[in-house]
Amino acid sequence: KVTMDATELLDRYLLEMHMMQLATSDDGRPWNCTLYYVHDDERNLYWASLPSRRHSLEITDNPKVAVSIPARFVNGEKVVGIQIEGTAEVLEASEEIREISAKYAAKFKRDSAWIEDFVSGNTEHRLYKLTPDKIYLFDEQNFPEAGRQQIPV
Q: Does the pTM of the predicted model rise above 0.90?
């Protein structure tokens, strides 16, 4: 029996999980990598990465990306996951960098110096943002008749 609607479940899973698979592409060649993430109330996803990484370079040329987040992954149990399509960008505004780096630091136990390094630009890493165009919750446990639920953005 479903005790929460799809949107509530999505928000719970986004909060509980901490890793995502990011898909980028360059000249028709796909790439996929695994990253730690945080999210905000609008379900934008954020991660820290080096601009020299393949996925970061590909975002510069093609900001259209996709993300997959496995939420329940026990062998033999029903599949639960999140799929997101959207546009990625490097964060530039220092207020936004401060807010997101603080959120990231809290989730992944980083100190205040880590936050200040991002705000001051004293790190090679950059913060990236994915703004969703489409979000899907695939949840065979809670929605056995129609596992794929599109969540409004």
A: yes
